[in-house]
Amino acid sequence: MSSIPDAEALYVDLLAGVKALMRADTRLVGVTSGGAWLVERLQRDLGLAGVPGIISSAMHRDDFARRGLSASAQTVLPFDVNGADVLMLDDVLYTGRTIRAVLNELFDFGRPACVRLAVLVDRGGRQLPVAADFAATRLTLPDTQLLALARAADGAFSLKIEENK
Question: Which of the residues 38, 100, 102, 119 has an alpha carbon 20 to 30 A from that of 127?
């Protein structure tokens, strides 16, 4: 890969993509932690009232025994999930396992009418049949690398590549 994409430029594309997916009753839900950062900013930039939902994959991960429970991983859904139109946001879509886990978590709270997914980056490499309704960009990285969203103190986003341990 020649360079890391500009996360702020991708956010502008994500904002446009989310606007196109929004319906009158759509509720935004961000996947901890990168998706939660994105959804907080999207909620504000779209001028939506209230606070967005935050959802954690921790309790439904298939690698829970290895990873354990993150101290920051708390699901907060400030709306009735039953019959809701949910637009889930995440930073990087990779294997699909995190999305499977958050879908299980979401259904623990009720039965939404519709769940769609928008991501900042789709890096391929799926292990489960999961697809985003919108991705700001698609790129390929070796399996030995992880792509992570970072947020600066001023709220600016950046992407960083880490070696997979």
Answer: 38
Q: Give the bridge partners for 89, in sequence order.
A: 30, 118
User: Of the candidates 72, 68, 109, 67, which has an alpha carbon nearest to the alpha carbon of residue 88?
Assistant: 109
pLDDT tens for each residue of 95-148: 999 999 999 999 999 999 999 999 999 999 999 999 999 999 999 999 999 999
Based on its alpha-carbon atoms, the radius of gyration of the chain, rounded to whole angstroms, reads: 15
Q: Which residues of 17-51 are buried (b: 16+ CB within 10 A; e: fewer)?
A: bbeeeeeeebbbbbbbbbbbbbbbbbbeeeeeeee
Q: What is the pTM of this model?
A: 0.92
Query: pLDDT tens, 50-80?
Result: 999 999 998 886 665 554 555 556 899 999 9
